[in-house]
Structures are given as C-alpha cells and as structure tokens.
Amino acid sequence: MTLLLIVFRSLRQHLLSTVITALSIALAGGLLLSVWTIKEQSQATFTRVNIGFDAVLGARGSKLELVLNSIFHLEASPGNMAEADYEFIKRQPAVKLAIPIAVGDNLRGFRIVGTIPEFFSGVEYAPGLKFAFAAGHGFDPAAKEAVIGSFAAGKLGLRVGDTFHPFHGLTFNPAEQHADTYAVTGILAPSNTPADKVVWIPLHGLQTMSGHDPRAATDVSAVLIQLRAPSAGFRLDLLYNKQGNRLTFAYPIGAIIADLFNKIGWFDQVLTLIAYLVALVSAAGVLVAIYNSMSARRRDIAILRSLGARRRTVFGAIVLEAAAIGLLGMIASFGVYVAIASGVAAVIRAQTGVLLDPWVFDPIMLWAPAAMIALCAAGGLVPAWVAYRTDIASNLAPSS
Amino acid sequence: MALLAIQSLQKSFVLPEGGKKLIVDVPAFALAEGQQLALRGESGSGKTTFLHLIAGILAADRGSIQLGSDDMARLGEPARDRLRARTIGYVFQTFNLLQGYTCLENVLLGMSFGPGADRARATAILQRVGLADRLHHYPRQLSTGQQQRVAVARAMANRPRLVLADEPTGNLDRKNAVEALALIRESCRETGAALLLVTHDAHVLAAFEGVSDFSALNRAGEAAP
C-alpha cells in the first residue's frame, strides 16, 4: 500500500515525463506486437489458404508463380495449358476433383477468372465450409453471367442484376474494354479467402471473350486439384515435374507458400530486430527519464528515509515506478497495435482477399508486455541504486 | 528513569581536502521520560548532527545512544530505521513535508513506516493541530504556520517516546513560532513524549524551564557544519 502510494504520487508528480516515456513504450510495444503478430498470422494464414485444393497443375514454370496466380490471384499467369491436359489429369484415379480456371481479363482492376460451377458447389474452401451466396445464385456455364466475390462486389459496387463489360489483361486499362456484356447473378458471402476479390465467370466465357485468340479458345490457365490421398501428390509430382517438361505440378500448396515465407524470412527478422531495438531504446528512456529527475527526488527520498523508510523501500519504489511506466505504456501499446495491425490487415485484404484478424490472441500479447515491463523495471535499477545510496542528512538541509 | 542516555558519543566527517574533523564529542547526556529540554547553540555548532545521531539518521563513530532498551549507536541501519520510525518523532526547521502528498497522506506515510497507517488517528491528530478542514490540501496550499502544524502532526502520529525538534520555529514569524512551540510542547505533554529541542532563538529558549548549552555539552568545540 505504502509503495503503491509512493509510486502513484511520483508518477503524478512527474506527469509529463511519465506520459512521454509511456507513449514511447506504447509505440515500441505496438510496433513489436504488430510485426510479430502480422508475421505469425500471415505465415499461418497463407500457408493454410489453399481454398480446398491440394495441388495446382499449370504451364511449365515456377511452382510459386503458379500457386500465387491460381490460388491467390496474384502475379501473372505462367501460360496456358491445353484442354487435353486438363482432361488427362481429371481422369487420373488419384484425382478426386479437378477444377479448371482461366485468367486474362479484369474488371476495373479486379481479376476475372473463368471456371466451372463445381467450384462453388463441390469445394470446401476450409474444413466444413463451402462457398455460399449472400445474394442471388451461381452462373449458367453457357451464359454470360458472373458471380462476384464479396470484397470485389463491395469495392465495385455491383449487385445482382447489374451488368458490366470486362477489360482485357490483368491490369486495368480503360481503352481495352471487351464488347461482351455480363450480368451479375450472384454475390458470394465473405469467405476470407482470395476468392472474395475475384469476379467469377464461366470458363467458356473467358475462353471465347471477344478479342481473345480463337486458337486458344479451349486452353485453361491452370487446374486446381483435390487428391484422394497425399501419396498421389508425390507420384504426380514425379510424373509432371521430373519425367515431363511441359507442365508444372505444384504440390503441396502450403509447403510452397511456406517456402516463400522462408525466402523472405530475413525481412521479418530485420523488422523484428528493429522492433526489439525500439523496445530497448524505450526502456533506456525510462532509465533516463527517472535518472534525470533524481536530483529533484533526492529531498523526497531523504524525507521518506527520515520517516523510517528503508533503503530497500525507496529502491523498490523506483523500480516499481519504472515498471509502472512500462505497464502504462504496454496498455496503450495495444491501441497502437490495433491501429497498425488493422491498417496492414486492410492492405493485405485488398491485395489478397485474405483476412488477418488483429483481435485473435497470440501468446506474444502476454509475453511482450511482461518482457517490456521487466525491461523497464531493469531500466529503473540504475536510478533505484542512486535512490538507495541517497544520503539522508545532506539532503535534509539546512543543518544547525 | 532516563529515556535517552548518551555516553562518549563521537562523530567526525571526512574533509574534502582529506583528514577528519570531529563534529560531535559528547561525553554524557541524558533525557528523562517526558522531560522537555532545550539545547542552546549557534548555527554550525553540530546540533543537527547531534540530533541526527540520536535519530539514527547518522551512524556514530563511537559511544552509545541508549534509547530505552536499544543502543542506537550499535544498531545496523535497517534496525535504526525501524527504531526511528517507531520511537522518534522529528520536527524540522524546513518542515520537510512531501509536496506531492496531501496533509493526510503526509501523516499516513509517516505512520506507515512505524506501527502502520491509521486513517482515523491521522485525521484525529490533524484535527488536534487545527487542520480539520485542510486534510486534503497540499503543503503548497498552506501557510508556513499550517505546514509546521502538519509536520508536528506527522511527528506525533506514531506516539513517539522522544520528539526531536531542530530549530522548529526558524522559518516562522513570531506569532506562528509561539503557536508552533506551544503545540509541540502540549502534544508531547499529552502523549508523555520527551522533547529535545535545539535552537538559537532566545524567545524559544525563554519558554523552557530546562535549557542546556550545547557548546558546554559538545567537546568538539569549534564551529562545525
């Protein structure tokens, strides 16, 4: 009780320096929490996002490029593959489901992907979860109809019954509008997957879009594959990647994305290192703030000691005060974290369709505050030692 | 029976240029239970050092300071702190109130290092010194006379057996000085505490029946810091 009163009063007496120091800790803590949580959530989410497929078959090229293009709808397509290749893999006994997709057009920057209706009806994009319609229904594979992902629908302002003209290419160029008119028949409910940011049309529609090369009218960009057993994936990997040289079989999808994170792991490490350094500087700020006020505190310390306070009491009060500044800072750091993480999550959502949730608990939300408070308390040790050694008599002047 | 019995007490300080200077050298001194004694001494005569030694704020170089059954001069610092908090009330010339704490908190804090904070007693004692309506005021919001009354309340809060007062009227005008002195003496009488007051103020000395000359007591002699 006495210690808490001393600490509370001291924090109030040095309010400005308390607030400034706590704010610097809040920024450091918020940065640390954000970097760590976004890194962890991104890695966990992106390596888990396969929208229900085990592998992707596409034109010869990089597995990562193939996965990014066909699952995350990022980057350019490595090329097309013949319809016969799709039919061949579809007939493989090890293949449970094969969904062809075709890309090459966009609607004001949102990618248009051609596929078959089974993509919406036959796939669990996550265990127990199938695509659902927030409004309307799926498209007729023979008609010029479209299903819009929830995020894309919101951004494009499209509703069921609206019509649009696709634009050629993966990037928006107003001069490259196709003559075809598509009617929106359904809006997907949010799935927090890359499918949310896609405009889905029938495969045949994209293949035969006005202005597309008629020679490629049956080609597909990739085939999304569900396997009956994991062992089949390694056999098909051998078949396409080792023995063949025309196509690329990307399997398993999670491992390919994990490999991407491993490649950019150094960037995470740099960010984390910066966050640690900021945290360290903030803890040093606590040391400096309290240390600089020690000359003003000496008289109060001497008075407390003259009243009977032990050296260890004033030592403990200073360490506790430093820890309290750390605690205040870390409480505020959650506000900083939510602001940073929400901003980053919005950017990731817009770019990939994948939703990161800043409110999901991560163990760092316990150990980072604990570590920061301990670091601040450690920063308080130096001024606490000065307090411990404060001479009573010489600070109770005047003498007679 | 003597509450305070001092024998062969010596304290010296290291000089900046090297060597030591003896500040206090008191062969014998005693104060009875409930006795009120004023020590006359000029500034720099070592009176404050003498009181600091009795209070255990400073450690003696040699000698004994028998306070009841405890020898303050032989105790380690934590024990001296404990004994000071429980047995001694100290009134300073500059009041030494904690500016960030209210009057009530200043008294409660003094109690917390002794027998324990007692809000009811702290309130009562502040009422006793005439500050019932100033409990939650900060020292800067009080007059100097009121500040000294808070200091007296704090010194008396732990029911000390010995009250040490170091030029307690030095910062007060005549009217407040008279009131403060009367308050200290009455408070000591009410609780049975002995009072040892050091001053060079002739008006204060005139109010005491028992007055000793510190220069006669202290063989260290020449002016000390």
Characterization of the model:
The complex is a heterodimer of chains A (400) and B (225). Chain A has helices at 2-13, 15-48, 63-70, 83-90, 118-121, 150-156, 203-207, 230-243, 253-263, 265-292, 294-306, 311-352, 364-379, 381-388, and strands spanning 55-59, 95-107, 110-115, 124-126, 129-130, 133-136, 145-148, 163-164, 167-168, 182-188, 199-202, 222-227, 247-250. By secondary structure, chain A is an alpha+beta fold. Chain A has 2 domains: 2-46 and 263-395, no CATH class; 55-251, no CATH class. In chain A, strands 1, 2, 3, 6, 7, 8, 9, 10, 11, 12 and 13 form an 11-stranded mixed sheet that branches. Chain A has a two-stranded antiparallel sheet with strand order 4-5. Chain A is elongated. The model of chain A has no long low-confidence stretch (mean pLDDT 91). With 225 residues, chain B is α/β, with parallel strands linked by helices. Chain B has a single domain (2-217), classed as 3-Layer(aba) Sandwich (Rossmann fold), CATH 3.40.50. Chain B contains 8 helices and 9 strands. In chain B, helix 5 (144-156) packs parallel to helix 6. Chain B starts with a strand and ends in an 8-residue tail after the last helix. The chains are: A alpha+beta (400), B alpha/beta (225). Chains A and B meet through helix 1 and helix 11 of A and helix 1, helix 2 and helix 3 of B.
Question: How does the SSE layout of this entry go?
Answer:
The complex is a heterodimer of chains A (400) and B (225).
Chain A: H1 2-13, H2 15-48, E1 55-59, H3 63-70, H4 83-90, E2 95-107, E3 110-115, H5 118-121, E4 124-126, E5 129-130, E6 133-136, E7 145-148, H6 150-156, E8 163-164, E9 167-168, E10 182-188, E11 199-202, H7 203-207, E12 222-227, H8 230-243, E13 247-250, H9 253-263, H10 265-292, H11 294-306, H12 311-352, H13 364-379, H14 381-388
Parallel strand pairs in A: 3-11, 7-10
Antiparallel strand pairs in A: 1-12, 1-13, 2-3, 2-9, 2-12, 4-5, 6-10, 7-11, 8-10
Helix pairs in contact in A: 1-12, 2-9, 2-10, 2-12, 2-13, 3-9, 10-12, 10-13, 12-13, 12-14
Chain B: E1 2-14, E2 20-32, E3 36-40, H1 47-55, E4 62-67, E5 70-71, H2 77-87, E6 88-91, H3 103-112, H4 119-128, H5 144-156, E7 162-166, H6 174-191, E8 194-199, H7 202-206, E9 211-213, H8 214-217
Parallel strand pairs in B: 3-8, 3-9, 6-7, 7-8
Antiparallel strand pairs in B: 1-2, 1-4, 4-5
